[in-house]
Design a protein that fits this description.
The complex is a heterodimer of chains A (about 350) and B (about 110). With about 350 residues, chain A is an alpha+beta fold. Chain A has helices spanning about 25-35, 45, 55-70, 80-95, 95-105, 120-125, 140-145, 175-180, 265-270, 330-340, 350-355; strands spanning about 5, 10, 20, 170-175, 185-195, 200-210, 220-225, 240-245, 250-255, 260-265, 275-280, 285-290, 300, 315-320. Chain B is built from 4 helices and 4 strands. The chains are: A alpha+beta (about 350), B mainly alpha (about 110).
Chain lengths: ~350, ~110
């Protein structure tokens, strides 16, 4: 089987791990995102509430924003990222202990600003964590608060002894029609939280390839076992869920595994019939056009669409369009004038025949 | 640096999932899945000689159900209704994509 190695354009996540686009220098992008101080996030501002807001007000604000940005129901731009922010803010502020820990970070920071928790904060809220000079480097604030159990201790590693499955990651990947037809390997380049020796959830790069067999179509969902977050206390590792979208193609439009291509014909080709070359994903084929073809008619090229995942093949439909010379030569104009004078063809005769029925 | 290659598993009608697997993959409790089956949100594969099983499309739907339940705290009835409406929207979007593929190449969906 031929596989194209794709640096696929990959979209966003619904879960905290950051996915780095599969651009020409994905490792550099990854390293740049990982290096640095923790960034402050203003959870009150994200939820649009005052710092003194009560639990009911916080819940109400969350529900309103969740309805607006939930990725399963929202069509808002960047809905996933916004919902992720809103969810992380609510998870922290709805819990009394976490909210207290968050409030003790101080209120003088700007959103996105590098910051360090005040001295003593880590020993009060994070078991073992944050003791070194760069104790909070490469840590996402949301990961940190997600790892707090809510009782002032870390819940991520130490806590209970019952198995906890790893977090699932959601990834959207765009591939080309050619990649869908032949199969491909996607470069997956993630930045995910993993607990370090001191129990802090540090962002680390995770790079691997996902082999996608031929036959993907728009919206196809795929599952990669063991590529999500690490399980705890013997729990299974999480899954990585891929959603495939097909990039627009210059010639072909996909509907499931069927493809459509516009086939422009000159008026005389449509009237008299002809044989033309039609592009397919596997090279051009010759197609006989019957005399009297009209615009909008579809000609089916069986089995020339996208392959289906396990067997079978979609069809290619050539949609006839009638193209005219917009700047005819003198000779063309003369011949068309003769045709106009001779022809009895009336393309609008049904205008007089088809009256409305009372 | 050696880069590991992982095969992706298709979520389609070729593979079947048990109720326990559906619950595990979606984060729903088995009792939640059973309730959603009662509401008609998931279709059971009732081929003779098989245990209760679900197709790959049900996994996707169950994961949506798991997220909606977690994020909106919906009961099974509300969840089933929401899933049904979301499926209807997906069907209409697919029909719209199909129409665009056939006749309206320049219009974005």
């Amino acid at each position: 089987m031929v596989h194209h190695v794709a640096a696929a354009r990959i979209g966003c996540l619904t879960t905290p791990p950051e996915l780095n686009p599969g651009n020409p220098s994905p490792y550099m992008t990854c390293a740049m995102q990982l290096a640095g101080k923790m960034k402050y996030k203003d959870y009150y501002q994200i939820l649009g509430v005052d710092r003194n807001a009560g639990a009911d007000e916080i819940k109400k604000a969350y529900r309103k924003l969740a309805h607006k940005f939930h990725p399963d129901i929202s069509k808002e731009k960047n809905a996933k990222e916004k919902f992720q922010e809103v969810g992380a803010a609510y998870e922290t502020l709805k819990n009394t202990e976490k909210r207290a820990a968050y409030d003790q970070l101080g209120s003088g920071h700007q959103a996105g600003q590098d910051f360090e928790p005040p001295p003593g904060w880590a020993s009060q809220f994070v078991h073992h964590g944050g003791s070194g000079q760069s104790g909070f480097d490469n840590i996402d604030l949301s990961d940190l608060f997600a790892s707090l159990s809510g009782g002032g201790r870390r819940g991520g590693m130490g806590g209970g002894k019952f198995p906890i499955p790893g977090q699932d990651f959601e990834v959207a990947a765009q591939i080309t029609l050619e990649q869908a037809a032949c199969g491909t390997e996607l470069d997956i380049n993630l930045s995910v939280p993993e607990y370090d020796g001191s129990g802090l959830p540090r962002r680390v790069p995770r790079v691997f390839k996902a082999r996608i067999a031929k036959g993907a179509s728009e919206g196809q969902r795929l599952r990669l076992a063991g590529k999500g977050g690490k399980g705890l206390n013997g729990g299974r590792d999480g899954y990585l869920w891929l959603t495939i979208s097909i990039a627009p193609h210059a010639l072909f439009r996909a509907d499931g595994h069927d493809l459509y291509v516009d086939l422009p014909l000159a008026p005389w080709e449509a009237v008299l019939g002809t044989t033309v070359e039609v592009p397919t994903l596997n090279g051009a084929v010759r197609l006989k056009i019957p005399a009297g073809s009209t615009a909008g008619q579809k000609m089916r090229l069986a089995g020339r669409g996208l392959p289906k995942p396990h067997d079978g093949q979609g069809n290619l439909y050539a949609v006839i369009q009638i193209s005219v010379p917009t700047v005819p030569t003198d000779r063309e104009r003369e011949l068309l004038g003769q045709l106009a004078a001779e022809s009895k063809f009336d393309p609008r005769r049904h205008f007089n025949r088809e009256k409305s029925v009372a | 640096m050696k880069i590991e290659i992982t095969d992706a598993v298709w979520l389609d009608d070729r593979l079947r999932y048990t109720l326990a697997e559906l619950a595990d993959l979606s984060g729903l409790a088995e009792s939640d899945v059973a309730q959603l089956v009662d509401y008609g949100a998931f279709v059971i594969d009732e081929r003779a000689g098989m245990d209760v099983s679900f197709c790959g499309a049900s996994v996707d739907l169950a994961r949506v159900a798991g997220r909606l339940r977690r994020d909106f705290d919906l009961d099974a009835g509300g969840l089933a209704l929401m899933l049904s409406l979301l499926q209807r929207i997906q069907e209409l979007e697919a029909q719209l994509r199909a129409v665009h593929a056939r006749v309206l190449p320049t219009l974005p969906l």
